[in-house]
Amino acid sequence: MQLPVNLATLAQACHPRSLPLPLDRWLQSSFDLLLLASAMREEGYLPAALSLWAVENPMLAPVDRLQQKADAGAEVVLTQPPLLWERTAAWAEEAAARRVSDHVKVGWGQAGQAIVCAGE
Predict the structure, then answer these.
(1) pLDDT score of 82 more than 70
(2) Is the pLDDT of residue 84 over 90?
(3) Is the peptide bond between 47 and the residue preceding it cis, with omega within 30 degrees of 0?
(4) How many distinct structural domains can be found in the chain?
């Protein structure tokens, strides 16, 4: 059985702490969801052309999290808007130096839009 593409949109931005307790005990991490979606796509439960997206905050998270998401199957990672430019630039430089952006497209969030700037 193949699921409709719109059902494959995984809402990763919903933080467990924002949900009523005890739901946070049953929620999977974004890494788990990416691995699951990758496996479902490989097994034919999701369309092969489905692109797996994730989100990241370069102002708070280390580049290791971006690498983990790429390793888990993310093909596109949309970031928070670069409000702290120096921190965001350092994050992007580290991602480029570690060649993480060679394997995943990174888009910068900007007023409801994404501008893909790496890995194109």
Answers:
(1) yes
(2) no
(3) no
(4) 1
